[in-house]
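Hi L.,

As promised, Dynamin family protein:
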Amino acid sequence: MLELILIVIGASGLGWWLYKKKRLQESTENSASIISLDDRIQQYQEPANLQEMSVFDQMIHVIRQQASNLNQCAIFRNESRKLWQISEEGDQPLLVMVMGEFSTGKSTFINTLLGAEVLTTAQIPTTAVVSLLSYGDTPAVKLHHRDGNVTEYDFAKLDEITAEGDEDKQVLRDNLDYVEIQYPNEMLKQIHIVDTPGLNAHREKHTANTVNFQEKADIVLWMFKADASGRSTELSAIKALGKRLKPIAIVNCIDNVMESDDYEDDEDPVEETLQRFRQRVGDSVADVMGISALLAKKALEAGDSAALEACGWTNFKQKMDETLLNRSAELKTRSMKDKITDFIAQMTQVFQQYDKKHAENAKYFQNQESAEQEIHEEIENLEKIQQRLSGGIAEAEAIQHEYQTTYAPRNVEAIDDTEQLLNLAFSLGMQVDCVVPLLEILPDDDRWGPSIRDIQLMQEARERIVRSFESWFTRYNGLCGRMQDLEQEAEQVEELRTEYENSGLFGGTPIFDFSGRRERLNNAVGAFNSNMESHQNDVISHWQKYKNICKSALAVNEDIVALERKLYQLMEDELTYEKERLVRMQEDFHLEQERYSNEKLELDQALRTVKVLEAAVASMA
């Protein structure tokens, strides 16, 4: 079982490798084909005998010359190829394209026209590829591949390629642009005929191949079936052809209505059918003719002129000779004129698109200065933030140093020391204000989000510390009030001391204290010493409390410094990005200016090309 799985995997891998190799080869060949075409366009030279050439051939020269000029414009390379293709089509005989839905008798019609069984016919959709019939001294088949290569094929096996059914040839058909069938028929010296796969046959490739070949056509013959003609799908497809290819309508299979029982004896079923058809299609077709290609084929083989006339072939052939064969040169010139006119119209639309684009570019150039100014302002703002962060770091480090060197190792000496420590601790707590303003300008994204949350946490820590300061500052004010009371008490003690020391009979300290001054003095001194001791204990307690608050503030302060350093580096990265963005914007601006200037030069050249083509079209009138 495992071996089987490995074999399947290996086969699948080999198949995929071969497929990728084939696609790569096709891509390379297609690229080479385009390069070869561009080389032909760019290397085109004016013919030496130009003045001796016909007016039509001189027109072909003008088209190729302008295609060569246009090919020098990088933005119009595709347009130059289209223009060159029009010139190559002009070198060929009148191209008559036979179109219609499947099973309308297109192939039978062409075989009858040529008087030979060249194309496969059947009651089901049979034509699988676009077939171009051209003149050749002997029957031959050339396969025109999508990659531009052309290969010979056995004429006797033509059905294998052009008709549905042979699945072995499907891969080959899928890679064909069209099949060229060369056949020794004098008509094919004047016109080339294109047989197309039937539309509405539920085969997308058929429809795509037919539509892709339309641009090359000069004349379209649209085949209808007499008993099912003028359907909405047909009319929609005809409308898509445009004015240039308004088709000649050929209503085929009129034998189906000639034998119909739906008409009275005095009615002409064919004329009635054609009349209804004309009413339905209106002016969407150039002319309407009714035929039976199958009866005509049989009549031609039997040499029955009456049958040919009865099936409408005589009338059709006469009009064919008058309107196509005898006027092929005139029609070719008109078709070339129409193709160039369409090309000019397409180029005009392209010019309009570029005008709109360049109007937007003009706005871009006008806004460039303001855009650069915005970046300059952003850079200046970031630098100010950096300066603020740098100053905050320096201030925080100075406060930390002052605390560590001046206050951390000391014990309380006086109440004023408590006030100084309070101011220092409050400064530590307020350090977070250096980063709090950043909350309003930092974007809350993956890059800045964590820093924003750190600032918010430190802001909360600062608020707790400040609340502690405010609470203990009230107590500090009480201590200060008590100190004032003690100073007043000390003055009172001193007064009692002075009064006692001068209360003797002859001045000085009395020998016997009959007034009780000594007792009052001793009591006052004892009370003062007790109050002073209590106050000193409270000051020491308060001092230790403030030292603890300072330690908390110091811890927050260290976190703030770390955050400031982190933010400083992020700002540094942002500054680098903004400066690089400014440089890129300036470079892009210069590149856009250069590209705009080059586009303007190429547009001017393309406009000159179109003017020459317009003059050439006017001369063909």
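The longest helix spans residues 517-619.

Thanks again for sending the construct details.

K.
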